[in-house]
Specification:
Strand content: 15-25%
Oligomer: single chain
Helix content: 40-55%
Order of helices and strands: EHHEHEHEEEHHEHEHHEHEHHHHEHHE
Number of strands: 12
Strand order of the largest sheet: 2-1-3-10-4
Distance between the termini: 42 Å
Structural class: alpha/beta
Largest sheet: 5 strands, mixed
Number of helices: 16
Radius of gyration: 19 Å
């Protein structure tokens, strides 16, 4: 049995319930894997915490790993082993009654978010792609909960809020509000189609010493994602077993949005799902580097393992040249 410490992107929720499914039905243990979960503090923090706190694995945003690669030596760098989000999950939310409907209309706006929010941290490439001078937008950070940020947004205290559509939808539901009625989303995937989202990452020592168990983990994990997509009630049962205090309806909707919009699983996974398209990932890295003004651009092979990469002729997702 291979014991592994896995840092999640957040507490167990509808956004990562496939981990709960694999745990409760014994699939991971049957593959010789003993996973111990640690609740995360946001997808952006996963890569750095994986490196700094000695985790074996982490589930979090791939662009945070790009930032890490830009400033760290390759020898001790984690790498992605499974690309779970085929689309950027990030959004900028504005009130449905707002006049803002395009990224260009964000000029002069006040946008609020958590300091570790992926949308806030990747705003530079978003602004560049949208032709916006980022300095023309007032970006503020806040320690308020997402529900509080959105409540203040609807009260007119700021113009927009960074985040994920799934997170915003769940947060508003806790206030008894429907995101479809209250919010309009500017989706990063529409402006920055080369960006990805969250991936499963492994530490350098684990990549060196446990290639076989990691391959088994990826195989089981992809199977659990597909099972959760086909049988969401079964996956929600698993989630409720490990996190009995959840609001099942809220987490069901969170999973539906994550599955369809972020993972790109409106239909069952096809060839290439779970891997990065090489030209597209190279373009995403280039977009991040250009937005941040970096002179050096990390190579694709520093970000993902060979088994996590696929050529465009095999990839079923959106592709784009660098």
């Amino acid at each position: 049995m291979t014991a592994l410490r896995l840092l999640l992107n957040s507490p167990l929720s509808g956004a990562n319930l496939f981990f709960a499914l694999g745990q409760t039905d014994g699939s991971f243990r049957a593959a010789g894997l003993d996973l111990a979960y640690t609740p995360g503090r946001g997808a952006w923090t996963a890569a750095s915490r994986l490196l700094q706190e000695g985790f074996d694995l982490a589930y979090g945003d791939i662009h945070a790993l790009v930032h890490l690669a830009q400033r760290k030596p390759a020898a001790d760098l984690p790498q992605a082993i499974c690309a779970l989000h085929q689309h950027a999950p990030t959004v900028i939310a504005v009130p449905r009654r707002s006049a803002i409907r395009t990224p260009a209309q964000l000029r002069g706006a006040r946008i609020v978010g958590h300091a570790s929010d992926v949308a806030l941290q990747t705003f530079a490439p978003f602004a560049r792609a949208a032709g916006i001078d980022a300095a023309a937008v007032e970006v503020r950070t806040s320690d308020q909960t997402m529900a509080e940020l959105l409540r203040d947004l609807l009260a007119g205290r700021h113009d927009a809020v960074f985040g994920y559509a799934s997170t915003h939808t769940a947060a508003l539901a806790t206030l008894g509000l429907d995101a479809d009625r209250e919010l309009y989303f500017l989706h990063y995937r529409d402006t920055c189609p080369r960006l990805y989202g969250s991936a499963l990452m492994a530490s350098a020592p684990l990549l060196r010493d446990a290639a076989g168990p990691l391959a088994d983990l990826v195989q089981v994990l992809c199977a659990k994602v597909e099972q959760a997509q086909r049988h969401p009630e079964l996956a929600l049962d698993a989630l409720q077993t490990l996190a009995p205090g959840i609001d099942r309806a809220i987490e069901a909707r969170r999973w539906a949005i994550t599955c369809r919009d972020d993972m790109g699983l409106a239909t069952a996974p096809g060839p290439g799902w779970g891997r990065f398209d090489v030209p597209r990932l190279a373009g995403a890295i280039a977009d991040v580097a250009a937005g941040c003004g970096w002179d050096q651009v990390p190579a694709v092979t520093r970000i993902a393992t060979p088994g996590c990469l696929v050529g465009p002729e095999q990839c079923t997702g959106v592709t784009a040249s660098p």
